[in-house]
Amino acid sequence: MKTSRCCEHCEGPMPITARRHARFCEPRCRAAAARRRRTVPAELTRRPRWIRHTARKVPLTIGGATASSTDPSTWSRYSEAAASGKGAGLGFVLNGDGVVCLDLDHCLDEHGEPAGWARTILDAAGPTWVEVSRSGDGLHLWGYGTLPHGRRITVGGGGSVELYGTGRYIAVTGRTFGDTPQRLGELQHVIDSLL
Description:
Layout: E1 2-6, E2 13-15, H1 27-37, H2 42-45, E3 50-53, E4 59-60, H3 78-83, E5 89-95, E6 99-105, H4 116-125, E7 130-132, E8 139-144, E9 151-155, E10 159-164, E11 166-172, E12 185-186, H5 188-194
Parallel strand pairs: 8-12
Antiparallel strand pairs: 1-2, 3-4, 3-5, 5-11, 6-8, 6-10, 7-8, 9-10
């Protein structure tokens, strides 16, 4: 017999014997969901612009020395950075080649739902990879665009958005938000509307 709850991965019904807070119908779905949610798009992983960072977001090389978001000699390949145990996590360096990140600060509620102002930006962005930030209550929208200088702006509804395209690194969690695709989309129209 089945209940009316659904598995978060396959969307099939949950077994009646599943615990009240279970999210997946079986271990296979739990493992598949974890792999999907912690995947960084190849458009980022194939670029050798990866670093590590401390808990306070100080950039580090894979060996643990101080890194720089403007010195390519301190960057590494994704596989090397992911294998390094230095610091608290991974970071990707934006160098002006067209990859941009829109950082939506404190936009998720305690249930992981985006605030209205953030939902408007997500809807406008369309199909592009979005990850949950390190804090767990923010989002990073990754895509393509031109943004010569970083900007921080306040949007309607009390939201704050940081826009970056060069001279900066972004802490990458790989925790995909919702069912966003594992690829980067065009974000120039969103950048233009925000600025």
